[in-house]
Design brief:
Structural class: mainly alpha
Strand content: under 5%
Oligomer: single chain
Shape: elongated
Largest sheet: none
Distance between the termini: 38 Å
Order of helices and strands: HHHHH
Helix content: over 70%
Length: 82
């Protein structure tokens, strides 16, 4: 991961880009939230804990990033645990 960030930063520097921090956060935030939600089957409380965020902060970021949250239905969870 460090080498990929290094490549990205060198490319940004070569293009005289500014706001490196916001560009990197924008590039990784959405996929990271989506992965956490997938890992927790859409459970926002568990995803927030996994990411180290407050649930309300996660909900705000989900809205800002326009992430579709699909929660598993109870019947699907019950079948999966049987």
């Amino acid at each position: 991961m460090e080498s990929k960030f290094g490549e990205f930063i060198r490319a940004m520097k070569a293009s005289s880009a500014r706001s490196l921090y916001s560009t990197i956060i924008h590039a990784v935030e959405r996929p990271m939230i989506e992965l956490a939600l997938r890992e927790t089957q859409g459970n926002q409380i568990q995803a927030a804990q996994l990411l180290g965020l407050n649930r309300n902060t996660l909900r705000k970021k989900i809205t800002e990033c326009k992430i579709s949250v699909k929660k598993r239905l109870r019947s699907q969870r019950n079948r999966a645990s049987s």
